[in-house]
Each structure stands twice: as C-alpha cells, then as structure tokens.
Request: fold
Amino acid sequence: FYGTNGEVLFHDWGVQGSGAKSVYKAKIEYTFPLDFADLVWSDGVKIEHKYIDLKDTMPFGTKEFNIPFDATGKKWIRLSVWDSTGSGAWVNPVNLNLAKNLPSR
Reply:
C-alpha cells in the first residue's frame, strides 16, 4: 500500500539486489512539476536518507527511479515523492529482511 493526496501516484516499487548492490526502484506518475524525493532507511538505530532534487521536471509526467543504496545491516526502507505544490505520495516501509522474497508492486 501507499499513501497519496492524488497528485503523485506510485505504479511500481521495490528493492532489487542485496547488500551494497541494492537498488530501490519505483515508477511514478505526477500532475505538477516535482520538487524532491526522499529515500529513507535504517538499521533500527541510525536513520539515513538520500535526497533527490527533482525541480527540473515538467508537469504531467512519469518518472522511474533507480536509486542505489547499501542495505548491509539495514532493516527497512521507504520512498516519498513531493511536488511543487506540497502534494506527495509515500510508500509504507519495506522490511529489507523480507524484501528479497517479495515481488515489486
């Protein structure tokens, strides 16, 4: 499941690979130009994130993300994407210990 207020929609998302060669993949559709995406993950103690500037996008588009990250020792990960009006969408955290056994959505 994912949350949205309607202007940003997730069509597919998930983790591929493992350890230092992990990649978070997502496909989205949006109405207004995007502002940023934020990939957040944690080992249960320390939280890390990768900010992705998306201010160069045009309205009424689609975007695919292929975001490398190191999943070694990490427990969960999630992505949120926000547009220029403050609207956004976010996926529920994915348990990285189970992610390798789950198909992307």
